[in-house]
UniProtKB/TrEMBL annotation:
First and last residue of the signal peptide: 1-21
PROSITE patterns, per database record: IG_LIKE (PS50835)
InterPro entries noted in UniProt: Ig-like_dom (IPR007110), Ig-like_dom_sf (IPR036179), Ig-like_fold (IPR013783), Ig_I-set (IPR013098), Ig_sub (IPR003599), Ig_sub2 (IPR003598)
A Pfam entry, by short name: I-set
Keyword ATP-binding: no
GO molecular function: cell-cell adhesion mediator activity
Name of this chain's protein: Ig-like domain-containing protein
Domain Ig-like: 115-209
Species this chain originates from: Drosophila madeirensis (Fruit fly)
Gene Ontology biological-process annotations: axon guidance; dendrite self-avoidance; homophilic cell adhesion via plasma membrane adhesion molecules
Keywords from the UniProt entry: Immunoglobulin domain, Membrane, Signal, Transmembrane, Transmembrane helix
Amino acid sequence: MEAKFLASALSFLSIFLAIYAQSLDTLVPNYDNVEHRMKFYDIRGPLVLSCKSESTDPLIWKKNHTNVMNVDVLKGRFKLINDEKKFIIDRAEAHDDGLYSCEINGESRDIHAVARVVVRVPSNTAVVEGEKMSVTCSVLGTAPQLSWTFGNVTLKNNTDRFVLKAENNIENAILTMDNVTLDDRGEYKCIGRNAANDYGNSTVASDFTTVRVKGKFAALWPFLGICAEVLILCLIILIYEKRRNKSELEESDTDPQEQKKKRRNYD
């Protein structure tokens, strides 16, 4: 208990000292997390960085220690508002994260731009009983951490049936399951988080897929149904043809007698 209290006190003290030191600075960035010098943003939303300063001189903005004017992926995508000491990307992408800095009169402040996580999985996943299931969680964001749940259960890697694999250097991006049973039907949720969740109030990203398990003979029933319909149709045609032939035969038997009667009446 004392160790937890001491850790909380030290964390609070470090944050307080960081805020206090920031208040004495002549160059103050708009951090979302002061302690870790972070600014969070939504992918395809605006990224707005600012550094308050008493100086009237324009700021020099850099990304990864290179002037933003010379960064190819930023050309034509950002604007500088010198009066407000702001650097703005109206439609920021995941690759716009990284280390930024504002400089003026020999002073510099770092800002770590962190893209919030976005995850996507297929809305529905169909699999046949006894076969293997594989679901990929597509993710964007800065250093994402992925996990999976089924109902209220968090799925662990290398269990009897569940295996979580990496894709594009992102751990747990692919969920696979061998020998699927009908009990495996339901909602599987991919959950993504990063520093924006650990050091900010960002909502944890999640998306779910509904797994539908078909029986082994599910595809056979429609075929059997069609066969039954064809058989019934053939029986109906056969019965109809038999009755028609019988009636024609009876008519042919009665025709000569009727013709004899007509001749007698004529005579």
